[in-house]
Specification:
One of its GO terms (molecular function) is N-(long-chain-acyl)ethanolamine deacylase activity. By secondary structure, this protein is α/β, with parallel strands linked by helices. It has 21 helices and 17 strands. The chain has helices spanning about 30-40, 45-60, 60-65, 100-110, 115-120, 130-140, 145-160, 175-190, 220-225, 230-240, 280-290, 305-310, 345-355, 360-365, 395-400, 405-420, 435-455, 465-475, 480-500, 525, 530-540; strands at about 5, 30, 70, 90, 170, 200-205, 245-250, 270, 270-275, 295-300, 315, 340-345, 375, 390-395, 425, 505, 530.
Length: about 550
């Protein structure tokens, strides 16, 4: 009998017969000399493709992509399903001024308790929320210029730390002082631009923030791509008075989930300097987690905002694809990447998101997104806004973690939601998870390769880190037929999730299947390849949900 297999149409799949099967990524963990030698071999013309074919076969990629008849038609870009407006939400105007959207978002929040920070706080460390800074500025307790001097001092001292903890790739103290002085003058005149005026943020190094270059944490990207203006998202935040401290460190070109970067140094976890932050938005998450900034912007196509936020103990939001414009970023031509906010609280994520949102003209035509909206949490009528929430949990997947402590803590949070708010827990089944993961790797990998090919053909590829070169070697092994097959799987996954969301409002999983990995000393100079950790622990739940638009109006 041949290798061919035929999938049952998604609409006819019996979910009750679906059995969860844990799939372990088959790939070596390499660092140092052995890693460098491995990269040379997989880039070799004859033996390289052979090794890649073996790795793909061991991970069932060929079986899924080349030996399988997938009856669904391809879905080359995420789609917005028809959606009714939910009760208790506030609709935001995409074409309106960012300052007005922020004001609308502010009205969605519960009453601000001044005493919580200024009178009853005895903690040695706490995160200042955006509203804390706004109150301090308006009451003349502190000014943006005063805060700027404190941040500049810390950043400059940070450069002398042992071991090095590089947070920023591009930083200009004079430029930060200039922005802070302008904000201070606005407050002195009684004319702050918005609640975000004077709020300090860091921008990931693959998002344009003029006058800083965008290197994508490479050593050469700024030589072939000039930054002439802010990215659209950055421009909208600047309109609201946000102060940008510089360009944050990251995993080179976003092609990794640890945050390792031999080019500029590896950002370390503020809670445990011997451990990774997670990636690829390593710098933004570490800056927020260390308390330097209230918020930061990262990019996310497979967990790159959510993973480091989770491992650093802050909040990361992967917006629905198309909700925010990607114009002015290095990853502006794909179908999975978004720009998303990182902050210490959900409240602050909501405020930053409201300022930066707004689909590009092209996406409004092709995606036809429903109006963006936020939950109204400000009135007594909505004091139990979570009470009607139906939470979907695929228990075998939920519990597939490296340590039961992770799933136990997540269960505790769910039990608290149920007891405090009466949320309903509903058991669900999500079929074909391995197929979804494979489709995601092929989709994001092919799109990354397409954008980098011209520069690689010009000889820049050899200047990339060994980690990135390993990923590109894999991506080059994908064919056009593989890409189309992946989009057929995307269509199947979309169908399954549309059916699931008829029964639940959200799907809940642990963000990552493991805690922050320890940084191998041998990985600091040349990097490392550890696809098992990436696939089985760090990005296991997240890449799946970068493929499609699943639900909510956010």
């Amino acid at each position: 009998m041949g290798k061919k297999r035929v999938m049952t149409p998604a609409k006819d799949v019996d979910l009750s017969s679906t059995k969860y099967k844990r799939e372990v990524v088959q790939a070596p963990h390499l660092t140092g000399f052995v890693f460098r030698l491995f990269v040379r071999i997989i880039e070799a013309p004859l033996i390289g493709p052979i090794i890649m074919n073996i790795l793909k076969k061991e991970n069932k990629m060929d079986e899924i992509l080349r030996h399988t008849v997938i009856p669904e038609e391809p879905m080359f870009k995420p789609e917005y399903p028809p959606q009714e407006m939910e009760p208790g939400v506030v609709v935001l105007e995409e074409d309106g001024r960012p300052e007005d959207r922020v004001e609308s978002a502010l009205k969605c929040l519960p009453h601000y308790d001044v005493a919580e920070l200024w009178e009853n706080s005895s903690a040695s460390f706490r995160y200042w929320k955006i509203r804390d800074y706004a109150h301090a500025y308006r009451s003349r307790k502190v000014t943006p210029s005063m805060v700027a001097e404190r941040i500049i001092s810390i950043i400059e001292d940070n450069g002398r730390n042992k071991p090095p903890t590089p947070l920023l790739i591009s930083f200009d103290a004079a430029e930060v002082r200039e922005q802070a002085a302008a904000s201070t003058q606005r407050f002195e005149a009684g004319n702050p631009l918005s609640i975000l005026d004077g709020i300090f943020m860091a921008i990931k190094d693959d998002i344009d923030c003029y006058p800083h270059p965008s290197k994508g944490a490479t050593t050469w990207m700024h030589e072939v791509r000039t930054v002439k203006e802010d990215a659209v998202c950055v421009s909208r935040l600047r309109t609201c008075g946000v102060i940008f401290i510089g360009k944050a460190n990251m995993h080179e070109l976003g092609m990794g989930t640890t945050g390792n970067n031999p080019n500029y140094g590896t950002t370390r976890n503020p809670h445990a300097p011997d451990r990774y932050t997670g990636g690829s938005s390593s710098g933004p998450a570490a800056i927020v987690a260390s308390g330097l900034c209230s918020a930061a912007l990262g990019t996310d196509g497979g967990g790159s905002v959510r993973i480091p936020s989770s491992l650093c103990g802050v909040v990361g939001f992967k917006t629905t694809y198309g909700r925010t414009s990607m114009e002015g970023s290095l990853c502006d031509s794909g179908t999975v990447e978004i720009i998303g906010p990182i902050a210490s609280t959900v409240e602050d994520v909501l405020l930053v998101y409201s300022a930066m949102l707004g689909a590009s003209p092209a996406n409004r035509i092709s995606l036809k997104p429903s109006p963006p909206c936020l939950p109204s949490l400000s009135s007594n009528d909505n004091s139990n806004a979570l009470g009607s929430l139906r939470i979907g949990k695929y228990t075998p997947w939920f519990n597939d973690v490296h340590s039961t402590e992770i799933s136990d803590k997540c269960d505790e949070a769910l039990n608290l939601l149920s007891k405090a708010h009466g949320c309903e827990m509903i058991e669900i089944v999500i079929p074909e998870l391995l197929e979804m993961r494979t489709a995601h790797v092929v989709s994001i990998g092919s799109e990354c390769l397409c954008s980098l090919n011209p520069d690689c053909e010009d000889g820049k590829g050899v200047n990339l880190t060994y980690d990135t070169r390993t990923s590109l070697a894999l991506f080059r092994s994908f064919t056009a037929a593989d890409y189309v097959a992946a989009q057929c799987i995307r269509r199947r996954s979309m169908y399954y999730h549309l059916e699931i969301f008829k029964k639940v409002d959200v799907i809940v999983t642990p963000t990552t299947g493991m805690t922050a990995p320890i940084i191998p000393p041998s990985a600091l100079k040349s990097g490392e390849t550890d696809m098992q950790t990436t696939g089985n622990g760090l990005a296991s739940p997240l890449g799946y949900y970068s493929l499609m638009i699943c639900s909510a109006a956010l």
